[in-house]
Amino acid sequence: MDEIPTSAGPVKITIVNHASLVIEGGGVVIHIDPVGVSRYAGLPQADFILITHTHGDHMDPGAVASLKKPGAVVLAPEAVAKALSGATVMRNGEIRQAGKWSVEAVPAYNLKHGPSAGAVFHPKGEGNGYVLTFGASAST
Q1: Contacting residues for 106 by C-beta, under 8 A, at least 6 apart
Q2: What is the rounded distance in angstroms from the CA atom of residue 121 to the CA atom of residue 113?
């Protein structure tokens, strides 16, 4: 776990696995791509869950169900929302508030490298990256 001081208070970041992490700050717990519920022993349940895409190493319905607090919000691209009941669609460019956090969905896709020639693992338009903002923005 790393702790980073910010203008709005400390932010704790815990890397869980591959793309899975937990971010805590401002009284809010955010899980990103939770996979493998046994990996989360001792970590807090989520107020918000962000899922990037449908691959099994990023979306684990059992982990999502086990790790969210009652009333937790799951934000995800449309492909995930079709596969995971209760997820709220967040499209590229949309910004939502998660307590003191601002969450912006941005495009996430590959231009090259795929399972076969001409194919990509993450096609344009199917996944989200997320930009999270907490506290004051940096000044130049």
Answers
A1: 92, 93, 128, 129, 130, 131
A2: 7
pLDDT 10s digits, 21-58:
999 999 999 999 999 999 999 999 999 999 999 888 88
Other Cβ atoms within 10 Å of 121 Cβ, number: 12
Domain spans of the chain? 2-134
pTM of the predicted protein model: 0.90
User: In the CATH hierarchy, which top-level class contains the domain 2-134?
Assistant: alpha beta
Question: What is the Cβ-side half-sphere exposure of residue 83, based on CA atoms within 13 angstroms?
Answer: 18
Q: Which amino acid is at 12?
A: K
**Averaged over 100-117, what is the pLDDT?**
84
Residue 63 per-residue DSSP state = H
Phi first, then psi, for residue 38 (nearest 5°) are: -65, -20
Q: Residue 71 — φ and ψ, nearest 5°? A: 85, 0
Tracing tokens 């937990």 back to the chain, one arrives at 22
